[in-house]
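hiii so my PI (J.) wants the whole complex modelled not just the main chain, which honestly fair. so below is everything: two entries, each one labled with what it is. i double checked the lines twice but i was tired so who knows lol
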Amino acid sequence: MTLALASAQSSALPTAASPLVLGVAAVYFVGVGAIAIWASRRTRTKEDFFLAGKSIGLIALTLAAMASTFSSFTFIGGPGLLYAQGMGAMLFVLPASITNVLAAWVLAKRLRLLVEVRPILTIPDALAVRFGSRAVHGLSALGVIAGTIGYMGTQVLGLGVVMDALFGFGIPTGIWIGTLIVTLYAASGGILAGIYTDVLQGLIMAVASLLVFLFAMDVGGGMTNITTTILAADTAWTSPWGTQTPLGAASLYFLFSVGVLGQPHVMHKFFMIRDPRRLKWYPLLVTIAMIVVILLMLGVGMAAKYLTVTGGIPVADLVDSNAAAPIFLLRFTPAILAAVVFAGIAAAVMSTVDSFVNVGAAALTHDLPTVLGRPIRDELRWGRIATLALGVTSAALAHLAFESSTLIAVLGIFGYGVFAATLAPALAIGLNWRRATRAGAVASVSVGLGISVVLGVLDLFDLFVVPGGITAPAIALAGSFAALLAVSLLTSKGQLDEVAPEVRKALTM
Amino acid sequence: MLAIGGAVVSGGGTGPLAFALAAGTAALLVGLLLLGAGADAGPGWTWVAFLGTGLWVVAGFGVVLLLPPESPESPRLLLGLPLRAGILVYGVGLAPAIVLPWVYGVVFDRETLTGEAWAELRDAASRSAEGDGSSDAGGRPPGSGPTPDGGGG
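here's the output for the full assembly
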C-alpha cells in the first residue's frame, strides 16, 4: 500500500475547510487528546509504554490492528489509484482476506506465548529469544529503525497533506502540526494511547467507509451500471491487472500477502492481548473490519471513473488522481459525512504513525542498547524522548521529501520492503520450524536488509529498474526466504533444541 | 522465487511467469499456514481448508490469465464487476476470507490453544521466574540461553 501512497502525497488535496468540517475535526482531536491524557495516567512502566501492560482485549486489538494497517492509502491513494489505473489497483488490498488469518496462525499465538515466558518488549526481542543471537537481535533492530524512518517519512508527509486539506494552512505547516499532535500523545501515553486512539480511529474509518460505499453505488446507479458504463468507454480500465503487467500484479500479491508478517507495528500488537485465548475470533473480526474499509476504495474509485465518463466530474478536475476521493466526498455526499471522512483520513494516518513511532522508539532505546551491552535503566523516560526525536526526524524528512517526488516514492517502497524482507521470513519460519538455525536467521535478515538498501539506492538514482514490472521489495523478500531456508538446511547450530525449556514450550505448544 | 528470477534474467514478464509467481505465492502461503498450524493440528480438516484455499487462489489467477478480455459489445459480469476482475476480487480476494477465519475460530479451542495448555505455560513461566529470583517484567534478558555468537541479545 505504501507504493501507491508514496506516489500520492506530494500535492495538496482540495481543501475541505468549512465550519462543519472544522467542527467535526475539532471534536475528533479533542477525543484523541482525552484518550492521551487518560493513557498517560495509566502509563507507569516500560511495559505499559511499549506493551500497553499486556492488557488489551479482543475488540481493541482488532480495531487497532486494522487502523494501523490502513493508512491514508485506503481513503486517498487507493481510490485515486483505482480511478487512474483501473481494477488492477485492487491487487494492493486483495491479500487482506488471507493475511490476518495467516498472521494469527503463524505468529499471533507464538508471540503472545513468548512474552509470557520472557520479558520481551519488541519483535527483535522475540527473534533474539528464538535464536539466542545478538547478531539477529541487532540486525533486525536496524531493519526496524531503517524501515520506520522510511515509512514514517511518507506517512508524516501524508499527515501534512491531510492537515492542509482540513485546515488549509499549507502542507509544510501541516506536517509539523500533525506530527506534533501524534508525537505528543504517543510520548505521553505510549502504545496505550496509540491503541485506544486507534480504536476511536478504526471505528470512524469503518463507519465512514460503509456509508461512503453506499453513496457511491447510489450515485452510479449500482455496480452493474457503473461497470457497463465504464466498459463501453474505457475497456482497458476494466482489466484485472489495470495498467500493470500480470507479473507486476502477481508480485504485488506476493509482497502484500506474505510481507505483512514482517510489519512490526502490526505484529507487535499480538504481545499486548490480555488473554491469548481471546485470539479465537480475531481473524474473523479484523478481516470483516478490513473488508468494510476497503469498500470505500472500491466504491469511490469506481464512482469517480463513472462520473468522469458520464460528465459528472470534469476530467480536468482529476488530473491529480488523488483528488478523486475528496472531490467525490465534497460534491456527492452530505456535508456531515464528508466531514466525518476527512476526520477519518486524519485518523487513518495518525493511527499508523503512532504505531510506528512506538516501535521505532523501542528499537532505539531498548534493542540497540541491549545488543551493545549497555541497557538503558529508565527505558520509560528514554522511550518518551526517543518518540519525540523520531517525530522530529520524520517531520524533517517529510519536509525534505515534500520537495522531491523521487525521494517520496523511494521512502515508502523502502519502508515496507525493509520490514517485509528483514523480519517476515525469520519470524514466520523461525518461530515455527524446528530446523531454522541461528546462521539461517542471520543470513535471512542480512540478505533482506542488504537487498532492500541496494535496490532502494539504485531506485533513488534511477540506476536500475526491475524487469517485467516486478516490484523491487518482492525481490528482497524472496531472497530473504531463500537465504533462511538454504542456510538453515546447511547448518545445524542454533536449532530449537538449544533454547530454554519454557521458550521451547511456548514455541511448540 | 524462480518466477522472479526468470523475469530478471529474461528481461521481462510473461503470462506463464505471472502464473508461476502466483502459484508460488499460494504454495508459500499454504506452507506457512501448515507450518503455523501443523504442530497444533496434524493432518485433518484444517489442512484440507489450507490446501483447498491454495488451489482456489492458483485456479483464480490461472482462469483470469486464460480468459479473453471483456468487450463492450457483450459485457460479461460477475456480481456487477467485469468477469476477470470479478474473479480476482471475489474469488481470490474475498473467498478465502469466508473460509479460513471461520476455520481458525472453530478449531481454536481444540487445536490452537487449549485452556490446559495456557495454564501449563503460565505455570512454567512462574517457575522459571522464581528460579531466576525475578519477576516476568524484570527477569532474564530476552535472549537468555546458549548464545555462541556473543550474547543473549
